[in-house]
């Protein structure tokens, strides 16, 4: 996931970067950091001044990913000591014309 120096809290820029990364990704699975995704899909209780405690709107992320042909799930096996696990993206099987990239 790319870093954004100019507009780190611009959700649309983060979503666009995620879309580009997933589109370019050749594999069936990908991982993304929770804090990066929280910038793209901030929860209502998200405080952009508190970089140490981002809050992700997982439901919004799941809907967004599904529309693009991916399933998004927290990867609790890689959670470690943090309470914010990375998010695993799994490419869904495509039927003709079912998914499009935006």
In terms of topology, how is this protein built?
Blueprint: H1 11-24, E1 29-32, H2 34-40, H3 58-67, E2 70-74, E3 87-91
Antiparallel strand pairs: 1-3, 2-3
Helix pairs in contact: 1-2
Estimate what percentage of residues fall within beta strands: 5-15%
Number of H/I helices:
3
Largest sheet: 3 strands, antiparallel
Got a strand count? 3
Description:
With 102 residues, the chain is of the alpha+beta class. The chain has helices at residues 11-24, 34-40, 58-67, and strands spanning 29-32, 70-74, 87-91. The protein has a three-stranded antiparallel beta sheet with strand order 1-3-2. Mean pLDDT is 79; it is low at 1-8.
Task: Offer a concise description of the structure.
It contains three helices and three strands; from the N terminus they run H-E-H-H-E-E. The chain is an alpha+beta fold and 102 residues long. The protein has helices spanning 11-24, 34-40, 58-67; strands at 29-32, 70-74, 87-91.
